[in-house]
Write the structure tokens for this entry.
Amino acid sequence: MRTKQTIPVTVRLAQLADEARRRAEAAPPGAKREALLKAARISETALQLQQWIGSPGLKAPT
């Protein structure tokens, strides 16, 4: 059964990116830090795509 999300996806993606960046800053250099930075970049990219998809200027393909 699916659950209803109460927080918009854009807010959740921004929170994920912020949390990953915060944890990466606190982590020592290494694989874990790089993985956290990658997760932050992925969340930020997904946020940008979500904002683009929801923009009023987006045109349907013809």
